[in-house]
Amino acid sequence: MSFDEKYSKIYNLVKDEINTLENRLTDEIKLSPFTDCALKKFLTRKTKRIRPLLSFLYLKARNKKIDNAQYEFQTVIEIIHNASLIHDDVIDESMTRRGDATLNTNFGNKIAILTGDYLLSLALKKLNSLNSPQIITMCAQTLENMCQGEINQHFNKFHITNIDEYLEKSEQKTARLFQTALCGSMLLSGENDTNDVNEFARNFGIAFQIRDDLLNLTDKSNLKPSQNDIENGIYNAPVIFAGSTSNLDEGIEKTKSLLNNYMVEADKHLNSIEDNQYTQAIRELLEILNYA
After folding, report:
1. Phi, psi of 5 (to 5 degrees)
2. What is the largest CA-CA distance in the chain?
3. How far apart are alpha carbons 252 and 255 in whole angstroms?
């Protein structure tokens, strides 16, 4: 069974919940008649929806109700994620994203940046409706960390850092939003002890970024440009382990081992949850993401 087939099987367990979320993503888009169609298309393009998928699976594994507040919060997470992608495309001067023209290609950098900012304003309004200062603070901290990670990456371009700096950047840029997605959903469900879910999400998020960096070197599909990170001076774990931008085989193997370590650690933090079909699905997700 292929990765996509296995992922689809997991996805189907929360397909209805994700469909509900997707219907909410565009219901308040009223920026401009010139941009709204393209923005809605961007928000509803085919994607794995990994953050809400993981959050919904975790909630179901813990026998928590997925109510209106949970849908609203996961919509916030997706909006923040998509706003960051729009800004990333401007920063990286990307012309396409998964085969489609980016907003900066269609409208220029200024409009793309403003569109990303607009999405963040929608996220703020939705957050405010949840009436949870703790979750608002959590999201604000996450946005701060995402910006720090991106800025640190910029100033380290064409410089081989050490693995600790790489992992810190991965946590800031990627893992924090996973942590917020899962911890926030548990807080909304009435759970105040989020230590286990926080550690699960942190390890999962770092592993997810490590896998993405591996695929940047090894994926031969046309959806993502191969090795563009190295070309742009972004030296991730394989380069760090190899000590250079060439002869990366050993660096790739060591990065695969690092990925596995984080997946194993993430799995440990599922041991306190009841063993049911949703917990099993999360473990299956860990298993297939560990293949890169």
Report:
1. -65, -40
2. 53
3. 5
The CATH number that applies at residue 93 is 1.10.600.10
Give DSSP secondary structure letters for 236-268: -HHHHHHTSSS--HHHHHHHHHHHHHHHHHHHH
How many Å apart are CA 166 and CA 163, to the nearest integer? 5
Would you call 235 helix, strand, or coil by DSSP? coil
Residues 6 or more apart from 75 whose CB is under 8 A from it? 21, 24, 25, 126
C-beta atoms surrounding 187 within 10 Å: 18
Sort 251 into a burial class: Cβ within 10 Å, 0-12 / 13-18 / 19+: buried
- Predicted local distance difference test score (pLDDT) of residue 226: 54
State the average pLDDT over residues 222-226.
52
Number of domains in the chain: 1
**Parent domain of 110:** 3-289
Contact at 8 Å (CB) between 257 and 264? no
Is pTM beyond 0.90? Reply is: yes
